[in-house]
Amino acid sequence: MEDLLSRRIAATPRGIGIVCDWFIKEAQNATLKSTDGREFIDFAAGIAVLNVGHRHPRVIEAVKRQLDHFTHSAYQVTPYESYVELAEKINALAPIKGVKKTCFFTTGGEATENAIKIAKGHTKRYGVIAFGGAFHGRTSMAVSMTGKVAPYKAEIGAGMPGVYHAYYPNALHGISTKDALKSLEFICKASISPLDVAAIIFEPVQGEGGFNPAPADFVQGLREFCDAHGIVLIADEVQTGFARTGKMFAMEHFNANADIICMAKSLGGGFPISGIVGRADLMDSLSAGGMGGTYAGNPLATIAALEVLKIIEEEQLNARALTLGQELMDSLKQLKQEANITQMAEVRGLGSMVALEFFEGEKPSPELAKAVQKEAMDQGLLLLTCGSYGNVIRFLYPLTIPHEQFQRALEILRQAIKRGVSKLPKKAVS
Questions:
Q1: Residue 430 banded pLDDT, cuts 50, 70, 90
Q2: DSSP state for residue 96 in the 8-state scheme
Q3: In 70, 212, 221, 289, which residue has its Cα 20 to 30 A from 155's Cα atom?
Q4: CB burial class (10 A; 0-12, 13-18, 19+) of residue 107?
Q5: What angle in degrees, to the nearest 10, is found between the helix axes of 81-93 and 299-314?
Q6: Is the pLDDT of residue 379 over 60?
Q7: Contact present, 3 and 10 (Cβ < 8 Å)
Q8: Mean of the per-residue pLDDT values for the chain?
Q9: Would you give the DSSP letter of residue 388?
Q10: Rounded CA gap, 122 and 279, in Å?
Q11: 181: helix, coil or strand?
Q12: Is the pLDDT assigned to residue 133 strictly greater than 60?
């Protein structure tokens, strides 16, 4: 493995951040096996890509059948039925009022970029409002909308013009819904007229920003603000979609509709696909050729996605997301109380989109989050951190994880938290 590590460092740029110092050899459902013979329980799921688990047998078989027909044609050259069928199913499922249309791409960044193109084409406006802590991708417009400087845009200079960032509600960090909505008004008084704003883009649960669920009154306030000023409301559900929050789309939790929803990640069950669903009048704003991509809506991925939608329904993964998420949150809250771990500042979540945030005293503690991540890795549990301060552990297990394995992971997690806290400098222990 040392040779492989040195080869990686020599062959690939440092700008690609790597979590693990080991290499994957094979995976099945929630289990990873490394090239050096170790096993890990996967609570990362390829960054929210594998809600139906690694190599779900039904997904693999569906893709194998497609391989016998064709692997690529470029949909905009020679279209195929699976793309159309998937669009029809997404149109039927998406919580958007009225007639809908859907198109597909390859990455989440492509989805958010094209959603902004649609909004600009429809409104003939140039401005975009996003939120602090947001993550919308790494390409030019997407990274400009991303609301976290390091590591995403600290070294690349000015972003795309016309992008502004408002506050996102976060009670732990002292930002209320009132503060967040007021910041929209401030932007439109100090920086850009609301009549020049094409779109407001937000995550119903912030992903990279710390798994912060949007308060219901905040989403309602966004809807009212957009309606008042003719602004397109875009929900970025790249990470929240397809049963992660206990609904097919997280927007189903709110009494307000977006105009456009971006999706990706777990839609493909491990195969790269993203998409946009929106009101038909919006989706038809651009002329033929204004959207697309060589690999957009690849037939292997559309076939996989059709199977994923069936699996979510037939294996009742929305209900399972709620059950597993509640079990995880109960376990963490019980640990905090029984062991008096005051550094566990907050346990929060929506369905199985659960987060644990660490503070030392009144300050966020990325050091403790990293320590817990390392302790868990040493015991065979793969975790990811997130948050504007890097002080949050996020949990992204496959929703198909066997319950016995899930409980084993929870025990590893509890012990990792205890060990991480015990290794803090004595002066920092609350």
A1: very low
A2: -
A3: 212
A4: buried
A5: 40
A6: yes
A7: no
A8: 96
A9: T
A10: 11
A11: helix
A12: yes
